[in-house]
Design a protein that fits this description.
The complex is a heterodimer of chains A (336) and B (637). With 336 residues, chain A is α+β, with helices and mostly antiparallel strands. Helix content of chain A is 40%, strand content 17%. Chain A has two domains: 1-7 and 21-56 and 82-236, Immunoglobulin-like; 245-333, Sandwich (Immunoglobulin-like). The radius of gyration of chain A is 27 Å and the shape is elongated. The chains are: A alpha+beta (336), B mainly alpha (637). Chains A and B meet through helix 2 and helix 3 of A and helix 5, helix 9, helix 11, helix 12 and helix 13 of B.
Chain lengths: 336, 637
């Protein structure tokens, strides 16, 4: 498609919007796949616009034409009937050809976005009601680690995400990078994409998955490759035990108050597998699957009453005294 | 045709004029009183009830939509809780699809098809009454459950595993699944009646190529119902079994599969869209011919398009499942088959455009709604072509783009023609015209506000807003468009309030309609408005596709049917040549009693499997009462 056509189309689609370049937008592609999809979309949009305008113009012209005066509904001209029948059939044929053409355009786009690259970085995402478990699995087990709701990837390198569900069907969708793919119970799906530019791209569950479907977001953070490698090294390390008394108290409370039954913190005795892994919780940008920014205040609000912020989620409200809460927050804040 | 025995009966050829009308009214009327009303088997009485009930459900579904639009008008609103919102969007979809859209189309068919083919009653009138009661009980059951906070909350599509016992332990999902059973029984019954009425009860001379386009559309729809609905009944019954007696149809850990549900559901769910849309096209053809003052161009093209749409609609369900991880080539083929449906739809549109081109249109309210339909539906159809493309669908699937798309198709493609049909056929049903002035306001308000409400949703989807979220955060840039959409939806609701006001006002004050106020061409306009219980004093004989235009002075009629008992004329399938006189059932209370027994059986069986055992004998008893041979005069002779 010529550049100017594309510009006009972008302009047309963005005009009615206050902000087109949201953090979660199919119109603002930042990956190879999402770019391809947008091009396909624009081709379809252009064809559709022409067809729609054509229909409306013919409709209007038909209404505005001079009409015969007498009301004799069966006084038909065989010539018009035959001509109209032929025109209708020609237009039907044209529709079929357009449809055929668009099918090929679509299939070409489909091949591109689902093309597989065996050298891709592979990670696994497991959907839970209502958060995302992210597993970076390497050849050797001590290079594998687990995190949640935040996926860091290198720019310019294909990433393959294997998708599974621990409970109901979810759908993994980061519109700025590529289209969505469902996480189907009892089935392994996968999705491959390449981020062109560094940035934070918001994603969200796109298949209705129960009460808190609206609060099941995540972030894909694309980093330059060397920065990604540094992060990976860091993320692979176990948590440091805190050195200060408040932190030590927090670590003890984390076990004593039941947090450790569900949450894992590598390198400590906390080994729960039900909830998100918290080994590097302090380095994540949001909590509760993108529901709140990750600050000491929001963390405190969340721990003291998770059911108020996200009703129905599986984290129970634990009876904590304010001193205990402060200690736990202090401890978690050290898990960089 | 005259044996000694038959001559003892009173025939309609020995009576004339007022005498004949009175005699036939006496034979065909619904018994008076409350009990009489419950016994009615008159297709017009049942059809009216069906239409009215379906519109009540439209009102209820519309109220739910308004509640959702309040909640979504701004970010992080707390007007509705997550739980309420999920129940409400599930109820909105289920009500609109199962309790409004399909029933209202079938209801119009129940009322109009027998009139349009020129017969005295629908085929299987007692089944028809039974169908209405099942529909009413199913709808009431769903709504009472909702008001008792047992409303379903897993979407109108109820995907497993979310809807299985582990993730939906309450009775909510059972209520949903059993409501399906109710409404599907009702829909299947009507489908059978329509097919038989159209095939065997057409007026003499109404050969296949003289059947009105609306009747053709309803015939195709009836076949779609018969082939599509069993799929969802199998699906929902298997779901109930999974939930109630621990079968494992959808459990992937025991050899079942969640995608089985999706295949079964969408094998029904996609034809379902056409079950709603094809009657809409029938209404469009009927209205267009009358108000463009000429027959629709390309009668055979339109019929073949209807049939092609019906057939193709069974070959594209997979486009609802493009992102479930299916093989890519297969998905690509379903892209092509989905887009292919644009061809028959397009052919119909082109025929209508050619009709308007050559006609001399009279711009009354029904025609305005048809023009609105073309503008909106074509847009919705084109966005449908977009979602049929796998790559585009991976972005827009389950987003507000799709919400915009199917509201354009369903409201544009079915509700606009339907409202046009209300304006068009109200004079026939009620005997009075709807106010044209209010009608014009109604149209313009509906047309503009519909676009204000739903057009922005295309953009919302593309900028990342998923469906079925009860709230969103302020930093998502979705607030403005959502607000516009909410304002539009309230104005759209107002347009329906105008329709309601118009109906209530015109029922009392409307101008008297007369037999054929629009000077239309089909047989329903050949009788009085509203039609008498017997529909026609004498069965019309059809010699032309547009009988009332061809024989505008005196319509030829056939005589010879009994005048002292209910009789309809059975004709041959293709040529509509008279074959036999067939007795038509008398009013009966048994269809209602059977429906009550069936409802107890259905509702009981979501609580205990034993209901299948103790629920069956009452149904059997009711059916024995229903079919108890009464010994007609024919048999005695």
């Amino acid at each position: 498609m010529p550049v100017w056509v594309r510009r006009v189309l972008v302009l047309c689609t963005c005009l009615p919007l206050s902000a087109c370049a949201g953090r979660q937008s199919a119109l603002d592609p930042q990956g190879l796949q999402s770019e391809q999809i947008r091009s396909t979309l624009f081709i379809f949009l252009a064809v559709s616009a022409v067809v729609w305008i054509g229909v409306v113009v013919v409709l209007a012209a038909g209404m505005l034409r001079t009409k015969r005066a007498a009301d004799r509904p069966l006084d038909l001209h065989q010539g018009y009937e035959d001509r109209a029948g032929r025109v209708v059939l020609w237009l039907g044929t044209a529709t079929a050809l357009i449809v055929l053409g668009l099918s090929f355009v679509s299939y070409a786009g489909q091949r591109t976005i689902f093309a597989k690259d065996e050298k891709a970085l592979t990670l696994k995402v497991i959907g839970h009601q209502w958060w995302w478990e992210v597993r970076y699995e390497a050849d050797s087990p001590h290079k594998s680690f687990v995190t949640a709701n935040e996926i860091r990837i290198p720019t310019g390198k294909p990433v393959r995400v294997e998708l599974e569900s621990a409970d109901v069907i979810h759908s993994f969708w980061v519109p700025s990078l590529t289209g969505k793919m469902d996480l189907v119970t009892g089935q392994k799906n996968e999705l491959q994409f390449t981020a062109k530019n560094a940035g934070v791209y918001r994603g969200q569950c796109a298949e209705f998955c129960g009460l808190q479907h609206a609060h099941m977001a995540f972030a894909v953070i694309a980093l330059p490759p060397d920065e990604f490698e540094r992060w990976r090294e860091h993320e692979n390390r176990s948590a440091h035990s805190p050195s200060d008394p408040l932190g030590k108290q927090g670590e003890a409370l984390f076990r004593a108050r039941g947090c450790a039954l569900c949450h894992n913190i590598s390198g400590t005795l906390a080994g729960g597998q039900l909830g998100p892994d918290l080994t590097h919780i302090a380095s994540r940008t949001t909590i509760a699957a993108g529901t709140l920014p990750n600050t000491p205040a929001t963390l405190g609000a969340w721990i003291s009453d998770p059911q108020h912020i996200k009703p129905g989620n599986l984290m129970p409200k634990m009876p904590l005294q304010s001193g205990e809460l402060i200690a736990i927050i202090h401890y978690l804040e050290q898990l960089k | 045709m005259s044996t000694a025995a038959e001559e003892r009966n009173l025939r309609d050829d020995v009576l004339n004029g007022f005498q004949l009308t009175r005699q036939l009214e006496r034979v065909w009327r619904t018994p008076s009183g409350f009990l009489g009303a419950l016994m009615s088997v008159d297709h017009k009485v049942v059809g009216r009830r069906y239409i009215l009930t379906a519109f009540v459900f439209l009102l209820l579904g519309g109220i739910l939509a308004a509640l959702m639009r309040i909640q979504l008008a701004g970010p992080e609103k707390t007007f509705l809780s997550a739980d309420k919102y999920n129940q409400i969007f599930t109820m909105h979809g289920s009500t609109m699809m199962f309790l409004f859209a399909v029933p209202v189309m079938e209801a119009f068919a129940v009322y109009l098809v027998p009139l349009m083919v020129g017969t005295r009653n629908i085929a299987f009138p007692r089944l028809n009454a039974f169908s209405y009661w099942m529909f009413l009980f199913g709808g009431a059951f769903l709504w009472l459950s909702f008001l008792l906070n047992v409303g379903p909350d897993v979407g109108w599509f109820s995907y497993v595993p979310l809807s299985n016992l582990q993730f939906s332990p309450s009775k909510r999902t059972d209520v949903w699944a059993q409501m399906i059973t109710f409404t599907e029984v009702a829909a299947l019954a009507v489908a059978v009646e329509i097919v038989v009425t159209v095939f065997k009860q057409r007026a003499p001379g109404m050969t296949l190529d003289r059947i009105p386009l609306f009747v053709w559309a309803m015939l195709v729809t009836a076949f779609l119902v018969m082939f599509a609905m069993p799929s969802v009944m199998v699906a929902s019954t298997s779901l109930i079994l999974d939930r109630l007696v621990n079968t494992r149809f959808y459990d992937s850990s025991s050899g079942g599969h969640p995608l089985l549900w999706q295949h079964l559901f969408w094998f029904f769910g996609h034809p379902e869209v056409y079950i709603i849309f094809i009657p809409g096209t029938g209404m469009v053809s009927a209205i267009l011919a009358t108000f463009a003052r000429r027959p629709v161009v390309g009668y055979p093209i339109v019929i073949l398009s209807l049939i092609a749409t019906g057939l193709l609609s069974f070959g594209l369900w997979v486009h609802h499942m493009f992102v479930t991880g299916l093989p890519q080539l297969g998905a690509g083929l379903f892209t092509a088959s989905s887009m292919l449906i644009a061809v028959p739809s397009g052919l119909q549109i082109f025929c209508w455009l050619a009709t308007l081109w050559d006609g001399r249109p009279i711009y009354r309210t029904p025609l305005l709604f048809v023009i609105g339909f073309i503008v909106i539906f074509v847009l919705g159809g084109l966005s449908g072509v977009m979602v049929a493309s796998v790559p585009i669908d991976t972005q827009v699937h389950d987003t507000y783009f799709v919400v915009a798309h199917f509201h354009y198709v369903l409201i544009g493609g079915a509700v606009f023609p339907l409202v046009g049909a209300v304006y068009y056929w109200f004079p026939k049903i009620a005997g009075r015209m709807l106010s044209e002035r209010l009608g014009q306001w109604n149209f313009w308000l509906a047309f503009i506000s519909f676009n204000v409400a739903f057009f922005p949703m295309h953009f919302l989807g593309l900028i990342g807003m998923p469906r079925r979220v009860y709230t969103y955060t302020a930093d998502m840039d979705w607030a403005h468009l959502n607000l516009v959409s909410s304002v539009g939806s309230f104005l759209f609701a107002l347009s329906f309030a105008l329709l309601l006001v118009n109906v209530i006002y015109s029922l009392r004050r409307g101008e008297l309609a007369g037999d054929n106020p629009w000077n239309a061409s089909t047989l329903e306009w050949a009788t009085s408005s509203p039609p008498p219980p017997q529909n026609f004093d004498r069965i019309p004989v059809v010699k032309h596709r547009d009988p009332l235009w061809a024989d505008s002075e005196i319509l030829p009629v056939a005589a010879g049917l009994s005048a002292d008992r209910r009789e309809v004329l059975v004709t041959s399938l293709a040529e509509a040549e008279p074959q036999i006189r067939e007795a038509s059932p008398e009013p009966s209370i048994w269809p209602l009693l059977t429906a009550i027994a069936t409802a107890i059986f259905f509702i009981g069986s979501i609580f205990t499997p034993w209901a299948v055992l103790w629920g069956t004998p009452p149904i059997a008893v009711a059916l024995i009462g229903w079919f108890w041979p009464t010994g007609s005069k024919e048999d005695e002779s």
